[in-house]
Amino acid sequence: MTMKRNSVEPFLCFARFCLFIWILISPSHTFGNWMYLGVSSITAPRDNICNNFPGLVDQQKSLCLQNPQALRGVREGAKKAIYECQAQFSSERWNCTLSSNYSVFGHVLKKGTRETAFIYSILSAGVVHSVTQACTAGNLTTCTCDVSAREGEHTVEGWKWGGCSDNVKYGIEFSRQFVDASESTRSEKSENIRNRMNLHNNEVGRKIVAELMKFRCRCHGVSGSCAVQTCWKSLSDFRTIGETLKQKYEAPIRIARRSLRTLKRAEKTKRRVPISYTELVYVHRSPNYCRANRKRGILGTKGRECNKTSSGSDSCDLLCCGRGYNTQVVRLVERCECKFIWCCYVKCKTCETLLDKHTCK
Amino acid sequence: MAGVVLENLSWKKLIILGVFLLVLLITFFLVGGLVAPKPSNVVTVLGTKCYDNGKKLNRSKWFVSRGIHKCEELQNLDPTDEMIVNKSITEKQVVFSFWLPGPRGGEERKMTPLFQNMLAVLQVDIEHSDKVPLSKNPVLQLDVRLGARDEGDDEDDWKQIASSVEDRNLQCTLEKGKGEGYLYDCELLQLFELGSISNHYYLVNIRLPVNFLKGYNVGIGKVVDISIHLIHQNGGFTIVWMSMKSVLFVMVLSLLIWFWRRIMQLGRPPNLLERTLFSLGVVMSILDCPIELLQLGVDIPFMLLLNDIRQGAFYAMLMSFWVIFAGEHIMDQTERNRLSLYWKHLSAIIFGSICLFVFDMCERGIQLKNPFFSIWVTSAGTKLALAFIILAGIAAGCYFLFLCYMIFCVMKNISAKKASLPTMSQLRRKYYLGVIYRFRFLMMATLVCAACTVVFFIMSQLNEGEWRWGDEDLSLEFTSAFFTGVFGMWNIYVCGLLSLYAPSHKTVVEIDSADGSTEENVQLTQLPTTPSETSALQALTSKAAQD
């Protein structure tokens, strides 16, 4: 017995050491990520999906096993977020390109750039949004019903006494547990600034969802008067959330690499100004997305369509990085004069137009 | 009113009584704020888009959003969606299904009669698309059914409560600069209101049938989702409210009996003011009577209507009381003590009340037949409703003008009397001082109560309307405190009136002991025997004129 243990121990020790080193050095983002849920095409949650899905960390697996319905919410959220990311960045030099492997965003997530910050925040927001929606639709039966502790609850069931809390509370809590899991497990071992940056940006996404909730009221007093008024908050649409996060992306805060307890700004004069959860943070400068760099997974803007008349980020000047553009005349066959009958019927004519198409050199 | 308890009460006793009432009031406020939960709760349910695969439109079939009889769900209503294209689904095959309330904590939540009533409002999410914009003033036509089921029933045994085809005007706006893919900001639409809750689960099925000829549901844009916000009273609030009402009911009723017995003991018919005060007490006790408790056992759908009527009757009675009280204290030469003198004021009150009653009958009365009905949805109905409300408002305005004029008269007379007070004999001075004191006391009490109501109301509205994110630790539920506090306050007000303005037994004795002239003594001791008191008052005032 003792012999056996002795012979096994060195090996185990070595294995552990290897694992530790591997965890320390391996950029986890390269080998898969929960975000892959958003692009994978699994439809029905199978029994073993939680364990076999690439990129889920242990805590995420156990959450998934506890609550298989929620995985659908996460998937919807990730899908929604990725779609929104591409919609928001359709006219930028970096257009939220997806890579073909499990890592979803490929090389972008390796560095702590502001693009990474945006991705983390919008995915975290997407999970909140979808899980909350699933609760509201009744698809997710496990949404909690927190009731504030008050007298009388012991005799009357909590929900009958004072109703349930907002669904979004559960959505945020779930997102905190699920999305943050991949970061918090590692940050215990190493004070990795990247982990903390990601955690911060995840929280920004959640805060934005909470902040953008629409406040609605209804009067229902005597004879419908406003003597009694009930107000509640409901989720705003994801397009608005994406737009707000895009605005945050435009003005992010660079943080110092050596931030001890709290994140500190890189800018020396503003070190003492605290960073709130409504601002995205980043560590590294963004690479130049103009030219293709296969090694770093940058596609470049060559061949991208640009707008000659615009003065924004989709203008030919900006998008083509001063390289100039090709113009060709194309015949555009488009659907026009559409007649739409709710829900599902669209009848359009096809119109042909000649159009100048500009593409970056 | 010769002498009331108020005048003969020593300061000490009055302060004790005041402190007692204040403590009672604070108790009511705290009961609402600390024990009761929020007055109402909102349950939001996002509609499940069901696919009706029947060949023919079958309106009697229920589409359930979850459970073992869950309908075939459509993920997406986009015209390019795979399932929609493959099955060539049309709008007639899409049913929005809502199971109210939603599940929480792993199990189905149940509605209970404790919730008293529920109101469902509809939120329609319409996505903007440049190709299919929203037409101007679109009309949404809802083919809607409401069913109910109890926990023990068979899973698909939904009993129909109501079914109707309803029109609602969509009022949507899109912020400037927002384009493709943004949702319109649409106003909430009233769906239904139920005055009693007798089932555990409710099921709503909504279809949006398109009718080209009549233009229904044609320009409604891309409806992507519909959700229902269900507002119901909280069970805990109902319990606290009912307990409070029961206590107040007993309190007001016992005071009322005491008051009436006191008047009976006087051995003269009660005068107008006493009768009015008594009626006010009666109406208050009717309002306090916790008949809502019956709803826990019996299904009473007209409870909402009944509560509105009870509350309206109380307001009308309170207003009548003020005007009669002011009138009886005017201290001029006219013979009062007759109801007919106040016909102008009272008819304004009655007219206003009738207007509101008719409006309420139109809204909640018809809702008894068809819970989906709302007078506000059609333009004719809106005009009618507004007409009634404006008429009631005009009546209220007239009333307040009358009341203000009356109070002005009283004030004028008071200052006139005050100037001549030193010249009066002691007895007459005592009499007038009493009248002035009575009036001022009530005036103060009323103003304080009214001011408190307004302040509490504004505070509760601010509190409710404020962005309250994350301050759940706050243990004081202000809106509930407002309801219990204000309701308790007006009860205390009426109780105070009943006890302080009850005729005093001490009057005669004290007047006897007063050393005024014998002539006046004779006149005043005659007081209780004179058929109407004000004639005595008049005798007195005419005497003052002679002086």
Automatic annotation (TrEMBL), chain A:
Report the domain of life of the source organism: Eukaryota
For this entry, the protein name equals: Protein Wnt
What role is this protein assigned? Ligand for members of the frizzled family of seven transmembrane receptors.
> PANTHER family per the record?
PROTEIN WNT-16 (PTHR12027:SF70), WNT RELATED (PTHR12027)
The organism that produces this protein has a lineage beginning with: Eukaryota, Metazoa, Spiralia, Lophotrochozoa, Mollusca
GO cellular component, alphabetical, reads: extracellular space
The record lists the membrane-crossing segments as: none
What CDD domains does the database record attribute to this sequence?
A: Wnt_Wnt16 (cd19344)
Tell me the protein family, please: Belongs to the Wnt family.
Molecular-function annotations in GO:
cytokine activity; frizzled binding
**Database matches in Pfam families:** wnt
One GO term (biological process):
neuron differentiation
Which keywords label this protein? Developmental protein, Disulfide bond, Extracellular matrix, Lipoprotein, Secreted, Wnt signaling pathway
| Originating species | Magallana gigas
Automatic annotation (TrEMBL), chain B:
Q: Which residues form the signal peptide?
A: none
A single Pfam family it belongs to is WLS_GOLD
Q: Which residues form the Wntless-like transmembrane domain?
A: 234-505
Chain segments annotated as transmembrane: 14-36, 239-260, 272-293, 313-330, 342-359, 384-410, 431-458, 478-501
The record's subcellular location field reads:
Golgi apparatus membrane
Q: Which GO terms describe its biological process?
A: intracellular protein transport; Wnt protein secretion; Wnt signaling pathway
Q: Which keywords does this Swiss-Prot/TrEMBL entry list?
A: Developmental protein, Golgi apparatus, Membrane, Transmembrane, Transmembrane helix, Wnt signaling pathway
Q: Where does the Wntless GOLD domain lie?
A: 48-233
- GO terms of molecular function: Wnt-protein binding
Assigned GO CC terms = Golgi membrane
The membrane topology term of the UniProt record is:
Multi-pass membrane protein
Could you say which protein family the record assigns here?
A: Belongs to the wntless family.
Read off the PANTHER family from this record: INTEGRAL MEMBRANE PROTEIN GPR177 (PTHR13449), PROTEIN WNTLESS HOMOLOG (PTHR13449:SF2)
Q: What is this protein called?
A: Protein wntless
Species in which this protein is naturally found: Magallana gigas (Pacific oyster)
